[in-house]
């Protein structure tokens, strides 16, 4: 079956499923493989549960005329996504960066959906499987699609751009994330800049933070760029007014009070405002969209529980985002500040050094109580409370409960530090 024929089938059955535990009636089941599973083995199960057709790449599992055999299921899914992306009329905005991708994506979607029919990456489905699934969620009447792209090694963003073929792109920042896979900070810059390489080589538009020196230098001679800045008047100007306790900013004399903590969220808001302006969303609608947006899923959430005011930022962490979170927390107006921070993953040979740097910064910021969790933090030199595992932390806090006050919780996803909420 050709991609054209498969696409015609997809239009008749426009639901994709890759997990037999989540089969919906009349979906297309793509039998993907992973390190510990072979989706081909579940093809018949998918049909039994109501799938219209299954796409497999091992002939031994071809059990009926509703089984479609291809050479490589994943590659076929990706090719189908690109074909569908070009079949539809939607303009595509691509988005990557070391920190703030998901928040920025959601802000952009909130703003642009005020005027257009949009779709956006669900959650953080931003890899070689998630990006195709996002593209396949584009409908005939979708006008703008916002596609988030994640990466932890070189050539990954290039690969995802070739699948997505974006009309516009934006890089949030270049930070100390996935250093192990990228081979250091310069590798991060090179890897994330693959989006610039794609956009400039295809003469597409680039959105940029003109206050970010790396972005500005990389796009210095490129003409199809649309930027924002707090000071450079050749770009769209947005003022940072402060934190109260959330980010407050001003565009064209209009004050916008966000529900986002941390100055690090200021450029994320600016990007959404800039794209809203480019797509002619009225400024009052932009203001309404940004002011209504509330972070979810353990990303800079403000919670209250049992006498604690909590900044829950436990979705993920790297040295750049950890430093920003700690400095922001230190600037907050509160009398009793405690932090529980967990290991930062994928740092390779720099792990010990980066964790020591964060511990040293924490000492300078002088919090009332500090708890470091994870094998990396446990191995550094510090006078703070440190625990090799979450269970060790839990045991300690159950014996010596934390003093009520303001609490920051932050760590990499694998640390799952949102579990702290259950033991306060």
From TrEMBL:
Residue stretches making up the Mur ligase C-terminal domain: 299-376
Family: Belongs to the MurCDEF family. MurF subfamily.
Residues that hold ATP according to the record: 97-103
MF terms (GO), sorted A to Z: ATP binding; UDP-N-acetylmuramoyl-tripeptide-D-alanyl-D-alanine ligase activity; UDP-N-acetylmuramoylalanyl-D-glutamyl-2,6-diaminopimelate-D-alanyl-D-alanine ligase activity
Subcellular location field: Cytoplasm
Keyword set includes Metal-binding: no
EC number: 6.3.2.10
Gene designation: murF
Record field: catalytic activity: D-alanyl-D-alanine + UDP-N-acetyl-alpha-D-muramoyl-L-alanyl-gamma-D-glutamyl-meso-2,6-diaminopimelate + ATP = UDP-N-acetyl-alpha-D-muramoyl-L-alanyl-gamma-D-glutamyl-meso-2,6-diaminopimeloyl-D-alanyl-D-alanine + ADP + phosphate + H(+)
Keyword presence, Nucleotide-binding: yes
Major localization listed first in the record, in broad terms: cytoplasm
Mur ligase central domain mapped to chain residues: 96-275
TM region positions: none
Protein name from the UniProt record: UDP-N-acetylmuramoyl-tripeptide--D-alanyl-D-alanine ligase
């Amino acid at each position: 079956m050709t991609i054209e024929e498969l696409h015609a089938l997809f239009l008749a059955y426009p639901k994709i499923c890759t997990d037999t535990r989540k089969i919906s009636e009349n979906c297309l089941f793509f039998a993907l493989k992973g390190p510990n599973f072979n989706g081909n083995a579940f093809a018949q199960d998918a049909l039994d549960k109501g799938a219209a057709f299954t796409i497999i790449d091992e002939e031994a599992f071809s059990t009926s005329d509703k089984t479609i055999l291809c050479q490589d299921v994943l590659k076929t899914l990706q090719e189908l996504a690109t074909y569908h992306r070009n079949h539809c009329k939607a303009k595509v905005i691509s988005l990557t960066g070391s920190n703030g991708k998901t928040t920025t994506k959601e802000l952009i979607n909130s703003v642009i959906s005020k005027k257009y029919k949009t779709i956006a990456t669900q959650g953080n489905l931003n890899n070689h499987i998630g990006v195709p699934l996002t593209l396949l969620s584009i409908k005939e009447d979708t006008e703008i699609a916002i596609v988030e792209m994640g990466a932890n090694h070189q050539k990954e963003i290039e690969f995802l751009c070739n699948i997505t073929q974006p009309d516009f792109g934006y890089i949030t920042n270049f930070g100390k994330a996935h250093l192990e896979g990228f081979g250091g900070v310069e590798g991060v810059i090179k890897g994330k800049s693959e989006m610039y390489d794609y956009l400039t080589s295809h003469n597409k538009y680039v959105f940029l933070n003109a206050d970010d020196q790396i972005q500005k230098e990389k796009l210095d001679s490129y003409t199809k760029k649309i930027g924002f800045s707090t000071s450079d008047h050749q770009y769209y100007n947005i003022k940072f007014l402060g934190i109260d306790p959330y980010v407050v900013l001003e565009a064209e004399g209009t004050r916008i009070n966000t529900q986002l903590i941390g100055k690090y969220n200021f450029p994320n808001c600016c990007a959404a405002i800039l794209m809203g302006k480019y797509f002619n969303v009225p400024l009052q609608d932009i203001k309404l969209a940004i002011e209504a947006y509330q972070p979810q899923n353990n990303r800079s959430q403000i919670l209250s529980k049992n006498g604690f005011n909590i900044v829950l930022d436990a979705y993920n962490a790297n040295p750049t985002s950890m430093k920003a979170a700690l400095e922001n927390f230190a600037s907050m107006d509160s009398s009793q500040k405690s932090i529980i921070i967990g290991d930062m993953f994928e740092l390779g040979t720099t792990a010990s050094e980066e964790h020591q740097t964060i511990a040293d910064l924490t000492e300078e910021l002088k919090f009332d109580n500090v708890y470091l969790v994870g094998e990396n933090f446990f191995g550094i030199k510090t006078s703070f409370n440190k625990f090799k595992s979450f269970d060790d932390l839990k045991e300690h806090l159950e014996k010596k409960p934390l003093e009520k006050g303001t609490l920051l919780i932050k760590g990499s996803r694998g640390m799952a530090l949102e579990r702290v909420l259950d033991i306060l």
